[in-house]
Amino acid sequence: MIDRLSRLALSAAAVFLVFPANGQDRTDPNPPEPQIVTLYPEAGQVGTTWQAEVTGKNLEGVRTVWFPEPGLAGTVVKSEEIKPEKAPAPGAVVERTFKVTLRMEARPTAGTGIRFLRLVSSLGLSNAIQFRLHAGPVTSEPEEKHSTPAEAPLLQLPSVVNGRIAKPGETDWYAFDAAAGQELVFDAIASREAAALGFHQQLTIHRIGASWFDPARPLRLAFSADVRGEVIVQNRDPRDRSGNWIRLKHRFAKTGRYYLEVGSLFGQGGPDKIYQILVADASQAETPGFWQQHPWQERSFVRRLGNEHTRALHARTLAIEEPAPPAPSAVGADAASGGGVRSSAVAQIPLDARAEAAVENEPNDTDAQALTAQLPAILEGTIDRESDVDVFRFQVARGQKLAFELETVDAVPSEFNPRFEVFDSKGLEVVSNLARTKEFKDSKSVYLLAVEAKVVATFEQEGQYTLRIRDVTKRAGSPRFRYRLMIRPQIPHVGNVLVETRTRANEDATLDPWRVNLRPGQARKLNLTVDHEEGFFQPANMMALQVEGLPPGVTALTGSSNPSLASRFSGPPMEKPERYQPARQDLTVVLDASPSAAVTDLPVTIRLVARTFVQGKPGPSFALGELPIMVVASNGGSK
Amino acid sequence: MVGVVGLQAALAAPPAPQSPRKQVPAKVVSLRVLPAGPTLRGAGAAVRFLAMAKYADGVERDVTALAEPALSDPKVAEVGPGGRVIAKADGETLLRARFGGYNAQTRVKVIQADKPRPFSFAREVGGILTKKGCNNSDCHGGVKGQGGLKLSVNSTQPKDDYHYIVKGGVFQVLTTESGGPVLPRIDPKDPEKSLLLLKPSMQVPHGGGQRFAKRSADYDRLLAWVRQGAPFGEESTEAAVRTESVEVLPGETILDASSSQQLIVLAKLSDGTVEDVTAEASYTVSDIHVARVSAEGLATAMQPGETAVVVRAAGHAVSQMVSVVSKPVPDYPAVKSHNYIDDHILLKLRKLNIVPSALATDSEFLRRVCLDLTGTLPPPARVREFLASKNPRKRELLIDALLDSPEFVEFWTFRLGEILRYRARSTQLMKDTHLYGEWIRESVAANKPFDQMVRERIAAEGYAGPSRYYYELRFLAEPPEIIAEQTRLFLGRRIECARCHNHPFESWSQDQFWGLAAFYGSMVDLRNTVMDDSVVTDVPEAAAKVIHPRTKKTVQPRFLDGTALAKEAQDDPRRKLAEWVTAHPYFAETLANRAWDWFFGRGIVEPVDDFRSTNPATHPELLAALAKDIREHGYDLKYLMKLIVSSRTYQTSGIPNETNRGDRTNWSHVVPKALEAAVLLDAVATVTGVREQLGEMPLQSRAIEICPDMVESKFLEAYGRNDRATLPEAKPQPGLVQALHMITGPTYTTKMLDDGGRIDRMARSGVSNRQAIEDLYLTALARFPERAEIEQLDTLMRSASSRKEAIFNLMWALVSSRGFAYRH
């Protein structure tokens, strides 16, 4: 009955429902949410057990450690409330703080990488917090002070060490031995939560050497100034496995003892400033996996392009061939738009055509040396030296709608900033991936540029086009600057879907809201932002949403707004956004627990399933994601 | 060519020079006649001459009045009143002079002697306006002029001046249109009613007072010009003869007490001829207590010292150093030179009768060189070791050790960070904090050639460290601001005035300024994600252009000499700019001058970034030699530093003698220099044995490692640390705030009273008074106390009520002394 009701609600995707911003809560309009603040240590070894400590808020009655993935187990050993050092001011809203001791187990089947845990408390399910599983031994910093070389514990390589900069100005020192000519890799990872609070860890490698002033002073060999590996935490989706990660590589000239100093920018410190360091020979260093972000990456430079990718796009839409190319006009290329009426001498590319690789062969810096590719194609090459330009040529039919997608797995912006431009036979630029945004500074306009990983364009003129690709800077080039540029027909489809469940205005935006705790008689709202890619946002197209696996007594209702062209960034407008940005549709799902809804002991995972309708014809269904949900007793207990 | 009959006739004959010398030393070693090989053009063209005798003391003196001039061919020219050679007919003649048993001669060539000199507005009218001060920057030469009349300073822009005088109107900064009431300053119908005559002769009220009398020579010349129809003259033709430069003879001028020297001002014209404009020039003396210069160019000594004389004439301004020497020093000592720096310094000191101070003691040198090269006090054990060493090369070995020390890297990262303006939060992204600073640090550690550093910064792109310099919080800095700073820092010239108008003192035009700024016109900020790693690059087709504020047109990149950036280089303009800047002669002399300032507290040109014709170098030959040397040594900063600190000049004592006590510009003795705020704070921490807690930074952090926007510090603010928001302007100076902070602030007293600090440890160790005095002297002053000091301090310590108080008093006496807070 409940499933049927929810399906009925979801099939009416265009229904508009108006709810207050915080959702309709017929009991407590602003119930406290369990929230994990820190987990220490944040790393463990596969096939072992270890003890961990969680601090957090509103964790009263914590009873279960919940993992969404298999191979992991945990138990709550102890929970104690931490009394505030100062009595709260009269009338102040007090959130109770807890320290919870856990026993964690990673079975041999758990695999390595980033994992998540949540706690189940009387108030429901907590946010998710990340931790990492490693194949090798994982240790923690010693209890004793180790803020000088003399106090530094000796690391055996490879080594994974959990630590924290517990107070401002603290530095943690570790000793290690290196051989002459050996290159070591030092990674320092700050927890996602610490990074969200602005924590920036730093690494310095020292040796003890001679200074005329102090024969025993540490001499700095290397320092982690370039924190390009860091990913700014700006997306609240916990599946974005981000945090601050810095990597320092150093080749040692002499055999001997060296020291690693872990510190922080401006001397930041505190109990939540948690880090891990990984030290290994360069040949054995693991990649912490920060690029394994959201499962659906429409506009990332690190997604894998190819025919599999094309198939994945088709799985989110219904492929319908365009009836005819548009009439020619004076403009070379334009945004994805409706079809035309006249035919072209060059055939349109079938939507299901396989893309073949066209690999550059140097020298190909000039138009005369251009490699001719047959579309769809994946242009492959490397900007391996200063001022390197790779030139390709291809034939396009009139009215052809093309998507250009760039992949640079080995090096991404800001290190490698690939810029491509497509020129017509007269040498006029018709499309490029350099997007320009106008901002205002002191009442004067300034331009910000961006190289985009995906661009769409309609070619109104049939003919031969030349594509030049290079780094946007003049003096960068590296064997790591490998690119794959896929040129294919546009496939109108549903792209990324962003889900937000924030219910309280003052909730920390960086903490995971991807869980729903409902009380009987309460409703809560999920806000979804759906990207419509490559011309999907036509009036005849739509997407319906379905929620599966709801617990008894909980129903789901959906509503949506009209799609519109919206800036990806809040702020000033981008020039020709239709080339560089998807159209967006806001969608709302209301989860409504009836007064008689059964309280749940453990989280129930609900699935968000989308279904597209193209030109009125039903397309495939596909999963958008999963979300844990609990029904919590109104009195604060689960039952 | 426009000839103006009668104008030349109005030229007033210069007065005869006064007796240049009452007494001269007996021994002459050479004689020369100036100017060398002049070519005169036109009827009545004339030039003064000088006979200069060089004496055994190295000083060259004016003996013109005693030199018995004669011409080899009297048909070509004649010697007239005032020692002038006057052209008579085309040809060449030799001007001969004889004095002190020496003969000297110079060739004089005359051309077009039958033709009147062509009229020139700039020369004739501009000359009067310059000489009478009408076009000074505080009068009509100001940015917007005065009283509705705008003139270019020193008539550097004669076409504009002509326009505003003849047509009227007022210069506007933001448009090419003239503003204000269009009021011509001449009246062609009734020339005597011209405001150009009525105002300066005070026939009508004039804010600038009377500049010349009615019927004076200048009045008559201007009146004649108006009556002739106010022509612009020679400059309006393609064959115009321009004044390319102005030269003041005899060059270096050294006067004995109460003596005089006639200055000759020559305009060098584009056709190779010269023109004597001594009478049309204006002379401004920076220190009238040292010398004075008459309106006719006669320099007269007043008292020993040095002064600059700024000479403005014919659209140019130059300066000339005039030195007045003390009485001769009997038995002037022989002073050993360490390198060519000393050769230049000692030569001038000898001429000025100034004896350099003795060589600095080992203690003096040790503390000085440690602070100057590393910003660090030498530890007591090293002081003992150095003072005890008998190695004759110990100073050289010390210099090498310091140059190779990690403290050198830290200190010069700080020092370069000051001028390269390393700030912690330049991009508003905390993670970018160290990128720029680390680039500086790595450059210092690798002793990267300075020209390479500069090229890297100017042409910086991508996410590289030096690219962060270009950010001002969220956005890239504006091209005009960038180029003004780059020019000042790397070329030593302040051209920012030319942003809004042509430079008031120098020949920098607004077009030149904006032409340079346009090299940054295609620089853009590229961001892949909002507020994430931002990348600097040049994309001409996507950037906002640089627009000239007056013409409203897009400005194309042009070098200072007007050469346009080649089309093929416009894709990467900053790289070309970087190459041009570092190849320019200004670059090397600016670096040499700044390096000199680092070690001596004053540049050879001071301020260090204000080279201009009216701000002369005290030792131009030395500056040129240093510039050549650093260029030939690949801009190796360590080489330059070692050269300087190895010199006898650097290693001279700070204790003056009778001859050099008043000298501040010739480096006859080392002048004390206040320690920079960060260096002083680190020194206080060292002496008290208590580290400074800088914000939340690790306790071992030194103040020289901290950026102004990284940590707040009352001490550093009180002692005047640079905020690095702009190029540093001021040097550390003692002040009331510092005195109050020392007495009432927490830094000194808290550290001295700290449990576990040096005072506490010494008090608990049972150290004797003598040991305590010696240890603290070595730590704070890098020297042993003298016997009298020990006795006085011992008495002071005995009067204390406790051991801790006794040592406290001792330390207080030391750290509050000038000997501690200064580098001597």
CATH fold description of the largest domain in chain A: Jelly Rolls
Query: In angstroms, what separates the terminal alpha carbons of chain A?
Result: 23 Å
Structural class per helix/strand content of chain A? mainly beta
CATH architecture field of the largest domain in chain B: Sandwich
Low-pLDDT stretches of chain B = 1-24
**Poorly predicted parts of chain A:** 1-27, 230-239, 335-342, 504-510
Which key phrases capture this entry?
heterodimer, A: 639 residues, mainly beta, Immunoglobulin-like, Jelly Rolls, 4 domains, five-stranded mixed sheet, globular, disordered N terminus, B: 824 residues, alpha+beta, 5 domains, four-stranded mixed sheet, 26 helices, 26 strands
Explain this structure:
The complex is a heterodimer of chains A (639) and B (824). Chain A is mainly beta and 639 residues long. Chain A folds into 4 domains: 2-27 and 494-631, Immunoglobulins (Immunoglobulin-like); 32-85 and 94-136, Immunoglobulins (Immunoglobulin-like, Sandwich); 139-293, Jelly Rolls (Sandwich), CATH 2.60.120.380; 320-490, Jelly Rolls, CATH 2.60.120. Helix content of chain A is 4%, strand content 43%. In chain A, the strands form 9 sheets. Chain A has a 6-stranded mixed β-sheet. In chain A, strands 2, 4, 7, 8 and 9 form a 5-stranded mixed β-sheet that branches. In chain A, strand 7 and strand 8 (124-125) form a beta hairpin. The longest helix of chain A has 10 residues, at 2-11. The two termini of chain A are 23 Å apart. Chain B is α+β, with helices and mostly antiparallel strands and 824 residues long. Chain B folds into 5 domains: 8-116 and 240-324, Sandwich (Immunoglobulin-like); 121-232, no CATH class; 330-359 and 584-671, no CATH class; 409-577, no CATH class; 674-823, no CATH class. Chain B contains 26 helices and 26 strands. In chain B, helix 9 (406-419) packs across helix 10, helix 11 (450-458) runs antiparallel to helix 14 and helix 15 (585-600) packs across helix 17. The longest helix of chain B has 16 residues, at 585-600. The model of chain B is unreliable at 1-24 (pLDDT under 50). At the A-B interface, strand 15, strand 27 and strand 28 of A face helix 8, helix 10, strand 22, strand 23 and strand 24 of B. Strand 28 of chain A pairs parallel with strand 23 of chain B.
